[in-house]
């Protein structure tokens, strides 16, 4: 099928990663003829400046207010806006709702392509993946799509980005997950800090999504694995030291075994940061490493993504 996405509808557009995705789409101006955002009344009330700025960005933009859990609201959005491509960036609390969004997209007259909310860890990486707790809702959606959605009617693409570098360096919940603290020049790294991790910066997630939109044939039916850079925690530390005057930082090595124990305890106690512990353990175990990523497949070259130096500079500027 020869297809060029033109009318986009975004769910979760103003969320943590949705914001970067929407900004990148709006910055790609002439590429898309129309962009619609389906959002809650709460977001309209709490983020008016952001929505006003986007409306002034020069791309025809509709903001639809509705309830994501109400099938009628969603079906109506598809009917009125006639998107050919739907991008979901819904948060973890809304992942299961996506089964309905997908079902309605397949039944709609206009939607040809849909990106479910992923933008994270490769949930089908190895033999342990099917049992990882944080993966369950995303795995269930992939299963539902495999078993129920006709590829002829609706193309699906999952954008698999690995951890966001911007969040990874700043483990607010517990520094033992791995953290870099410029104010006290302290770092926490897992084991000897030599385990490589593949990252995306949050602005690059938006860039990769737009690159995928520009390469439909290459993206249809795939879980695209994209990365800004692959580095070790020790390389990250060296970059922080370089950009903070050259002094050596104080380093705490957290054994992987200790991270696993913290993870087990967090799940047993029903702690809010349990998901974070599991994902950090997966990343430390090599869960973001591939023989080859898909950057090139969607036309993203080595100089098109943020470098480690840029990402650390940005993180320092935020502190
Ligand atoms: N790779 C990483 O390091 C990483 C880190 C964080 C998240 N992620 C992934 O990125 C995706 C998006 O997560 P996020 O953190 O960006 O999302 P988020 O900010 O928590 O939420 C995004 C939007 O989803 C909508 N939403 C509606 N009902 C919701 C509900 N019950 N719970 C949560 N959100 C609801 C809201 O938008 P409206 O008000 O407009 O409806 C909200 O602004 C997820 O798949 C997540 O797993 C990856």
TrEMBL record:
It comes from Sporothrix stenoceras. Pfam families: NmrA. This is NmrA-like domain-containing protein. The keyword NADP applies. Gene3D superfamilies: NAD(P)-binding Rossmann-like Domain (3.40.50.720), UDP-galactose 4-epimerase, domain 1 (3.90.25.10). The lineage of its organism: Eukaryota, Fungi, Dikarya, Ascomycota, Pezizomycotina. InterPro entries: NAD(P)-bd_dom_sf, NmrA-like, NmrA/Isoflavone_reductase-like, PCBER-like. Keywords: NADP, Oxidoreductase. Residues 6-261 form the NmrA-like domain. It comes from the Eukaryota.
